Structure formats: structure tokens, C-alpha cells
């Protein structure tokens, strides 16, 4: 597209495109304008352009364009006018929310079920799958439901994309932290309102990554300072809102991760948040730990919540405090009394230690690493702390009684029977608390199952100390809470954790309580307890003699001394408390002063930076304006000079003198201005002369025409008055005549009024009946047509479905046939390759065998040729196979005497004369071309024998080749 010199021109062009309906082209024009680096200095018109650009993006649901434009606008406004960026982002979110709500309102006008179906989308960022499209066509989805889904879902997807875009743009902006927090809160409310669990998890992960990157890259220019109280409060509020929404959506894993985020944020800045936030924090922790069956940490969270409410909430009523204290005690009693890590592996123990450390840190913000201190979090230490902190004084009487029964009483026979009515009363306690409490509701009935299990374990423990065997019916009667199958499961878990020792013999229908060893809990202190009880009995029977105390005389003075020491200690304590308060006040004052100093320095630095940027911006702007003015003046001067030269040429004057065709800017301007001034003076003289002439002519013309115009005007007045009177008289006469005629016509027609009404009623009734008949026929015809079309569409849909199924089946058969053919071809190809490989192997072996044979023959031929004389005298050494270059006849003759076979005479002669001289090398080609062996050049009688041998060798070679 063409580049515009000014943003106003681009904006005007975009409005023209919008007016003719080309919104896509208008959006592209504005997008190119905003993303160009040339227009970053144009702030005032760019804000107006951004508002129009955002409107187009929202109307066309172009989230990517909106993100690109906002990123570029953030670069423009970050250091100069950040409030403009804030307004644009707020407008963007307002438009997106408004369009989504409008679509939702339109869908709500239809059925509510259709709206729920439209919003029933697993992931707003996922595209529509191909199988969903196929199912929608096959299943015959109704047009209204499809329109609801197409109307509502895209706008909610765009709204979710809007929240993601804004959070991404504002993630590292210290000047727009409040807007970032507001956007996060609105996104949380969006997920809560429409039950968007997938988007909520993704949103929590986005915010978590933003904070991680903020801590990772600390050298960023506009990075928010988490040590500032305002920034910390905003981030904490965002995390607490995230925790609330996670618990309301019942996303407990995400809620636990949110708790860890809050704890990590507190550890990062090392500051304790407000008590109101801590109350919400511990209230949500109680829900999370109860859902995860972490009863010990649930009880500790309730205890921390009770301490906070008691210390900081002065408006809390006594009833609310009593319910909270009762929840604390019952939560502590609900903790299993046995250690579940007994007998666990080393890996499991390490895992439990790490988990305990994480839970302890979450509960008390404790950063010390104490994995070895097993008494930090335990049931016994919690109950002891509850007693020491006076929590038992706030609980109800039923909770006190059940605590005393389960922890201090020894009633093996009727423990469960005494606990059961107390549990029935406890199950009815609870309800909503007052508005002063941060906890909305407390229900003690949730602890009843755990208390029933605890009562069962205590009963089994006490019975095992008294009885050795017991019938199953008796034990079942002592435990009214559960059937014996449930009691057996509970006892199996307790036996596994070494809490009790018992066996169930179903054949004898008895329960056996046995002691495993002398190291068990029951026998470990048995003798010591027995000795202690005997000692008490002896002292009761024979009380010891009381000797007179030497301290009797000192008791009065001792009482006064103790009282004085007590008063002194109280005074010292009050002084220490005052000193601590004074020291804390001084520390707070120092922190406040340091914070104010830091804020002042930061404000001064920011103001200096803004002034510097504004100065630089003004300097660049002034330089650009001066440069443009100079260029414009130069262009105007050149144009003026050219025009002056043209005019001089037309008039026949001389060309202005320019030294060597080189002229400076000032000289050029002076020449142009001089020429222009001269021409202007001449033109003014001409205009003055012409104006004077025209003035004289106009004055003379008006002086002559004035009396004529006045006379014509008076004559026109007289004529128009006469005409008006005549027309008025004619109109009166015509009106009187019309009125008389109308009266006569009325008298004539009044007689037919009754007949007209009768006829009118008759015609109207007939036409109404005809209309009703035609309407019924039309409705019947339309219903028949609709029914036939509906049946035809259903038939065609089924036919298409069956045809598709048949095509799929044929396609499947075709694919199977092709796969089978391909497999057969591959098998044949493999067999052919194997056959060729075997043939090649056989041929290679044959060639190897021939090479070995030729090598052996060559060696023997060399031996034979090298020892011809010796072989003649030693015929007893036969040749295994005649060489190719020597005849077979001498070999046979030499082998005959050794083997004892008959040898002809001519062979004998040849054999005997063979030792005269070594035979020359035989030419097989010459010997084969001469069939007669007597045609040698020498007369020696050995030649024929060698010739015949050559022929025999040649014959053998040819036969071997064949």
C-alpha cells in the first residue's frame, strides 16, 4: 500500500474505506500506519487512530492485529504518555466485554439450554476438529442450536484472547500495575462466571510465568519493584483472588499451587501481609487440606486461623469464637493417632520429610530447614499447644467432654456408647458466622466420621490391654458406629502401623489380642507402672510420718518475698514491653522515612527522566521543523526564480546575472523577492487604475437607474393590490356555491345510508368467510409441502449417510486389497532377490573353484617345464592332470611302466628318447592348425609326439570349456 506523509491522511483514508464497506482494507491501512516507525512521534493523532483501530479489530475479531497494534503503541507511549496507553487498553477490554455480553444477551433470548450448549466448549483456544464438523452434518444439528454456538462461542474466544493479550502487554510495566491487576481480576471473574476451568489453569500459569520472568530478568528498564508496598499489595491481591476462584471452582490442585505462589511471594519480599489477607489464606488452606485428607495440616491451619481471629478481630462475637475453637479441637482430634510412616521405605520417608517441610512452611511461613525435627508437626504437640494456649476454654461443653473421653479416660467397655450421644449433638452444631468473621460458615458435622474412627481405635486399644480374646459379636456390640467389616478394615490399618496388636479368627468367631514382643507399647512400661501403683497403695495404707519443716518459720517472709518478686517481674515485663513497643515504633518510623526517601528519589528520577525525554523530543521536533522550513523555502525560491526567468523571457528582458551559474540561498531568495516585489508593484498600479475606472462607471450607472427603479416599484404596488382584491372576491363566491351543492348532495344520499350498511355487512361477511376458507386451505397445503420436504430431507440425509458408509467400506476393502497386493509383490521381490543371491553365490563359488584349478595347473606346468630332464628318467612320477601346454601322450607313456600297464612301441621309443634334450615350448595354435605332426622344421622324432600331445590338450581344453 502507499505510505502516507501524515497520520491524519491515513485516518481519513480508513474512514472512506469503512464508509464503502471495505473494513478489512481500512484495518490494514491503520495497521501499517501504527506498526511503521515513522509515526512514533505523532502522539496526539495516534490516540484517535488507535481508538478507531481497536473498534475495527473488535468488530472483525482480529486479535492478532490488536496485539500488534497495542505493542507498537506501548513503545510510543511508554516513556512519554502512559495514560494514553491505559485508556486505549481499557477501551479495548470494554468493547470486547460489551460485544461478548451482547452476544450472550441475544442467546439468552432463546432457550437457556441452547446457551449452555454454546458455552460448553472444552478449550476456547482450540479450533474446531474435523470429526466435529462431520458429526454435525451427519447428526442433522438444528439450525438454531448451530446459530447459538456460532454466535456466542467466537465472542467468548475473542474476549479470552483479549485478556491474554492485555496481560502479555502489561506484564513488565511498572506504571500500569493497577491495570494489570484489574485485568487479572476480570479474567478470574470471567472464568468463575462461565465455569472455564481450562482457561483458569492457563491463566494461573501465565501469571506465574510473568512473576518468574520478573524475578529472572532483574535488569529490565520498566520492571515493577516488588519491594514497594503498593506493588506488593497488588500482586498479593491478585494471588488471593486467584486462590478464592480456584476454591470456588473446586480446582484444588490449582488452589494449592496458588497457596505456594503466595508463600513464595512472601518469602521473596520477606514481609508479612495484613491480618485480613492471612485470615483468608488460612481459611482456604483448611479447605485444601481437608479435601486432600491431610488432617494434621488441616488442624494446624485451623489453629493459626483461630489465633489470628482472636488477636486481630475485636468485633468477633463469643459464639463465633466458640465455633472456631471447637473446629480447631475437633480437627486436632480427627488426626489419626498412629504414625503412617511406620515401616515405610527410605524413599517414602524422604518424600514424607520433604512434604512435611513444604506443609510446615505454608502453614507458618517458616523458612528454616528442619526436616529432622519430627516434633514440629505432630498430633501430640498440637494437642499440648492447644491446652497451653487456652483454646479449651473457648470450646463448647460437648467438645470438652469428647476430648476428655477420647484422650484421658480408660473405658474399654462403654467408651463408644458414651461417645455416640456426644457425636449426635456435635453433628447439629455449626452454621453461618457473623459478618465480622472472615470465615463464612463452620460445620462441625464434617468431623463426625473421623471421630467415630478415632473412638473405634481407642476402644480397640483399651480392650487389647484388658482382654486377650473376645467374641466378634461382643466387640460388634461395643462399637455401634460401624459393621464389623468396617471395624476389621480399621484394625488392619492400625495393626499395620503397629498401633494395636490383634488377630481375627473367623473360624472360631473370636478376636485375639496378642502382644508381639516385650518391646511393644503394652509391655514396655508394664512393670514400672505396676511398681508405681503398689507404691501409691503402700503410702495410702501406711502414710509416712511428717517431720516438722524447717521452713515453717520462713513461710511468712517467703510469701512477701514472692509477692515482691512477682511485682518486680511484672514491672520489668511492662518496662520491656514498653521498650519493645518504642523500638518497634522507631523501626517503623525509620522504615517509613526510608520508604518516603526512596519514593522521593524515585519521583525525582522519574521527573528528571521525563524532562530529559521531553527536552530531547522538543529538540528533535524543532530540528525537524527547521529542516522542513528550509527545504520548503528553497523549493519556493527555486519556483519563484524559474517563474521570474519565464516572465523575463516573455517580456524580452535580460536574464538575471548569476556568477558562473552558482548562487547561494540568500542571493537566490533576494533575487526572487526583488523580482516578485517589482511585479507586485506593477500589478497593484494596474489594479488601482482599473478599480478607479470601474468605480466611476458603476456610480454613473446607478445614478441614472435610481428614479426609474422607484417609479416601476410604485406602479407594481398598485397593480398587485387590484389583483389581490379581485382574486379574493372570486374565492368567496366559489366557496358559497360549493357549500350549497354539498348540502343538496348530502340530502340526496342520506336516504341510501341504511341499504349501504346492510350491503356492506353482507359483502364483508362473505369475503371474511372466503378469506378464512382460503387461509385454511393454504395452511393445509403448506403443512403438506413442509411434511413432504421434511421426509425428503430425512430420506436424502439417510441416503447420504448410507452412501458414505458404503464408500468407507469399499475404500477399506480397496485399501486391504492394495495392501495385500503390495505385500505379495514385496514377497515375490524378496524371493527373487534371494534366488538371485543364491545364483550369484553359486557362480562365485564356481569361479573360485575354476581359479583354484587353474592355479594348480599353472604350478604343475611350471614344475613340469622346469624339470623336464628329470621327469624323462623318472617315469614313476605320474602327472595328476595333463597341463594345457603339454600333450597327454608323453604323460601316459611315462606313467605306464610305473603302473605296469601295456605301452605301445612307438610310445616306448618316445619315452626312451625323451632324455636327449628338453622339449621346446609348444604352440597350441600352430599345433591345432596342423593335423599332421610330421610337419615340423626339425627332423627330430620327438616333434610328432609333442604335436599329438598338443592336439590332445587342445581337445581337453575345449571339452572343459564346454
Strands, count = 5
Sheet with the most strands, sense and barrel status: 3 strands, antiparallel
Helix content: over 70%
Structural class: mainly alpha
* Helical stretch tally: 32
Compute the separation of the termini in Å: 86 Å
Please list the strands of the largest sheet in the order they lie side by side.
3-5-4
Name the overall outline.
extended
**Can you give the mean pLDDT?**
76
The radius of gyration computed from the alpha-carbon positions, rounded to a whole number of angstroms, is 58 Å
**Poorly predicted parts:** 133-145, 365-375, 657-662, 869-901, 909-962
Strand content: under 5%
Structural commentary:
Residues 839-962 are annotated as: Disordered. The chain is mostly helical and 962 residues long. Helices cover 74% and strands 2% of the residues. A hairpin with an 8-residue loop joins strand 1 (430-432) and strand 2. Helix 9 packs parallel to helix 11 (229-248), helix 14 runs antiparallel to helix 15 and helix 25 packs across helix 26 (665-749). It is extended and about 160 Å long.
Summarize the structure.
Residues 888-898, 948-962 have a biased composition (Low complexity). This protein has 962 residues and is mainly alpha-helical.
Based on the model shown, name its key terms.
eIF3a_PCI_TPR-like; 3-stranded antiparallel β-sheet; 5 strands; 962 residues; mRNA binding; PCI_dom; disordered C terminus; initiation factor
